[in-house]
Write the structure tokens for this entry.
Amino acid sequence: MRVLMLPDAEFLDRERGLLQRIEIGLADEGVRLLHAAPASTVDPSSSDAPVVYATPITYYDRGLPLTLPLRLSALARAIETAAPADQSTGERIVDIVYALGASTWGMALGISQRLGARLVIEVWSASLIDPAANMWGRALAARKVDPRRRPRENAPTFLTPLAAVASALARRVPSDRITHVPWGVHPADIGPRAIDLSRCFTVVLLSSGKNPRAVEDAISALALASERIPTLLAFVDAGLAERTPIWKLASSSSVGRGLNERLTVIAELESRRELITQADVLLIPEPLGELRSIVLDAMACGMLVVARKDPQVEDLIQGQTAALVSEPGPHPLAAALIALAEDHDRAARLRASAWSYIHDRRAASDHIRVLLAAFDRSMASALN
């Protein structure tokens, strides 16, 4: 089986670790991989190989809609040059086009139709349900152009790590085209990791930035918690700091109460997993409605997760994987942070149960097994 992995720039920047785990796992199963990196993310002056378990190519991810045919032709040539098929055996250049990132779906549909490959789309967010349903209709519309095609030829298969998203999408797309594929990570050897308030209490803020009130609540919660935890330090993503008034809020006497002195900005925070997972707490002040693998990595590495309740994300389980807050506002978030900082036994139990959840139910090997089975079903459907 040959698989073209087609991430967009946002997904690639945020989920490099996940992509690498997928590539390693599939390569170990004998899958031949091509990794198409968006040209906007490739540094021509860098000599570092972006991938080692897949054949790397580049595609043009930016351009007006009218340039899509040209960009598709360039991608097809890059694929044929990098991994030519053995024509004597009837081998396809690509069997599966695996689209990761909503902005690449149009490119993925076009290249799958051009190469006669199956299209598989990752839907990791509830916000992508409508676009996924539209993509289903768009793919089926190709039959009107070419009546020789079977009704579902080149129609996509959808994968999602969220059971709630799978259920919602099944009301818009035939359920046999949807597979629940939970993401997996590697559980770390966390050992006896205890919070030491005499040293510091470190909190990483994870927010979409789309909800200004959630950002304000988070800054205020951190400020309130710091009044009880003098060693509290907070880390935020540089992109989030640029998109929202975090510094203004942190320096405000009514909201941040001088939190700016405890705040550190980190560029590409979500891609720096080895650094970030050394912190004590991952704070999620809003229901994101989507899965980000940093949440699973946090649990796998012994971080404590404090989050608003999110009915879309089944991995956030009160008392088992996270300390969940149902009430809005900064005070419940601050109370949850303080409780974990001051009750070491409670923190240790939560850390251990979250790690066990990842070990038992979200291992990277399970992710690869279910993903490969989904690819096989997609291939089999092409023969029916």
Observations:
- The chain has a mean pLDDT of 89.
- Residues 2-184+363-381 form a domain with the Rossmann fold fold (CATH 3.40.50.2000).
- The CA atoms of residues 8 and 101 lie 5 Å apart.
